[in-house]
Automatic annotation (TrEMBL):
GO terms for molecular function: hydroxymethylglutaryl-CoA synthase activity. The keyword Transferase applies. It comes from the Archaea. Residues 195-412 form the Hydroxymethylglutaryl-coenzyme A synthase C-terminal domain. Keywords: Acyltransferase, Isoprene biosynthesis, Transferase. The keyword Acyltransferase applies. This is Hydroxymethylglutaryl-CoA synthase. It comes from Natronorubrum thiooxidans. InterPro entries: HMG-CoA_Synthase-like, HMG_CoA_synt_C_dom, HMG_CoA_synth_N, Thiolase-like. GO terms for biological process: acetyl-CoA metabolic process; farnesyl diphosphate biosynthetic process, mevalonate pathway.
Length: 445
């Protein structure tokens, strides 16, 4: 069977940044270490006044097409995943196509376009759609452009304000991909939950503490479902495990839960037993609360073992490097984690071709998905071609007053005009409103 997967990825960050320990924490009267150590974040990316989900998505896609030498005729689908859409009818993908048509001779008139919504998991669902479309043989030799783009803003004063972010990830899905092949096997953990939602409002209603618990519960369910089709997983099976990363502290919890699950009934559990005992089994307890207390105690001890910390340092921590600098990109976040891991491998000269990733996506509301990816021979070239450091370095560092202004600029209920903080260069920009309330864009050389 021909491999189908991600041929190339490009990332586009919002052009502004907010320093969390340096600028945000002092204003909140909080210890900067809550951000750097607790949440695991140094900075958030923000869009400048001329940026939005369309410009960031189109800019990521444009870079990707240029780098891979793709023309509109090579693309048979454009799917945009977002939870920051501004129109209940016209999909963001039509705007993105319109932008790209300004700079290419060809057009996307024969490409199927859509928009995917299921909170942060929609980007991964769009990968599924592309995979299925190619497997079904409906692609006519073409690939799919999947764009995950979000401006993840919370209401001022919400606890989530610390975890904001903005950026886009563009991916080209094709046969014989250069980066990763997607597994056919996948697992789901899905339930009707009220943890984070935006009932026709821009900023989320969020029960932060509950959302953390729902994330973990659904992720565990997805892993068990994945194992039911792919067989038991083992900690040494995967080079990296990129998770949806609303903030790195969340993934610290997910990594520990997954490790505990994976080592059950393995020699690793046995070897650790001298140090911390065996994992408590539900059957051994009459009372559910006592079982949960024992499990919590075991998990706390597991976290402190050298065996776990070494595994975490190799398998999970490298997935978080980019997220620490950009915050939550919602639909793009798990795809940023994948790139972060592969960049780590490149920088450490690891030979990854043929190795596997386990990818754990999550969307509030709520659903988790797990699947494996096999790293392809072309991965190094793909990752080497990214200019992430350059982009992150070039961001304008917002003062507190700037931050308050730019939050208002992107608040749909406010009509605020500010000078741009940065100067657009070779990118699409927002260019005002049309007569039917549509947004207009132009390319700035
Ligand atoms: N030094 C070191 N660590 C510190 C610290 C300090 N001075 N002060 C606090 N911390 C630690 C805390 O112990 C905590 O870590 P643990 O959970 O491991 O104990 C961490 O920093 C965060 O501190 P708080 O829990 O006190 O932070 P908070 O109450 O202000 O809010 C939050 C945390 C609820 C996650 C909030 O940021 C939030 O609501 N975020 C938005 C929702 C979210 O991201 N949920 C994640 C799951 S849902 C999802 O994944 C979908 C999505 O993208 C939104």
């Amino acid at each position: 069977m021909t491999a189908v997967g991600i041929d190339a990825i490009e990332i586009w960050t919002g052009n502004l940044k907010l320093d969390l320990p340096g600028t945000f924490a002092p204003q909140k009267g909080e210890d900067p270490e809550k951000y750097t150590k607790g949440l695991g974040l140094n900075a958030s990316s923000f869009p400048d006044s001329y940026e939005d989900i369309v410009t960031m998505g189109a800019n990521a896609a444009h870079r990707l097409m240029e780098r891979k030498g793709l023309e509109p005729d090579d693309i048979g689908r454009i799917d945009v995943a977002t939870e920051s859409a501004f129109d209940n009818s016209k999909p963001v993908s039509t705007y993105v196509a319109g932008c790209l048509e300004q700079v290419y001779d060809g057009d996307f008139h024969h490409a199927n376009k859509g928009e995917r919504k299921f909170a942060c998991i929609a980007g991964t669902q769009s990968l599924d759609d592309a995979y299925n479309w190619i497997r079904a043989g409906r692609n006519r030799g073409r690939g799919a452009l999947v764009i995950a783009t979000d401006t993840a803003l919370y209401a001022r004063g919400d606890a989530g304000e610390a975890t904001q972010g903005a950026g886009a990830v563009a991916m080209y899905i094709s046969e014989d991909p250069d980066l990763v092949e997607l597994s056919t096997e996948q697992g789901y953990g899905s339930a009707d939950e009220t943890d984070f939602l935006k009932p026709n409002q821009q900023f989320p209603s969020v029960d932060g503490k509950r959302s953390v618990q729902v994330y973990l519960a659904r992720m565990r369910e997805a892993l068990e479902d994945y194992e039911s089709v792919a067989g038991d997983t083992h900690p040494d099976q995967f080079a990296y495990i990129p998770f949806h990363t609303p903030f790195p502290g969340m993934v610290r919890k997910a990594g520990l839960l997954v490790y505990r699950h994976m080592i059950r009934d393995t020699p690793i559990e046995k070897e650790l037993a001298d140090e911390i005992g065996r994992q408590p089994r539900a059957e051994a307890f009459d009372d559910e609360e006592a079982f949960h207390d024992a499990l919590r105690e075991y998990t706390d001890a597991l976290k402190e073992t050298e065996t776990y910390q070494e595994w975490y340092g190799e398998t999970i921590d490298p997935t978080l490097t980019l997220s620490r600098e950009v915050g939550n990109w919602y639909t793009g976040s798990v795809h940023v984690a994948r790139v972060s891991a592969l960049k780590h491998a490149l920088e450490n000269d690891l030979d990854l071709a043929g190795s596997q990733l386990l990818v754990g996506s999550y969307g509030s509301g709520a659903q988790a998905e797990g699947h494996a990816e096999t790293i392809q021979d072309g991965w190094k070239e793909e990752i080497e071609a990214l200019n992430l450091e350059e982009q992150l370095e070039a961001r304008y560092d917002l003062s507190w007053d700037d931050y308050e202004e730019i939050h208002d600029v992107h608040n749909h209920d406010m009509d605020v005009d500010v000078e741009e903080f940065t100067t657009p260069d070779s990118e699409f920009v927002f260019d005002g409103w049309g007569r039917m309330g549509e947004r207009k864009y132009r390319y700035v050389e």
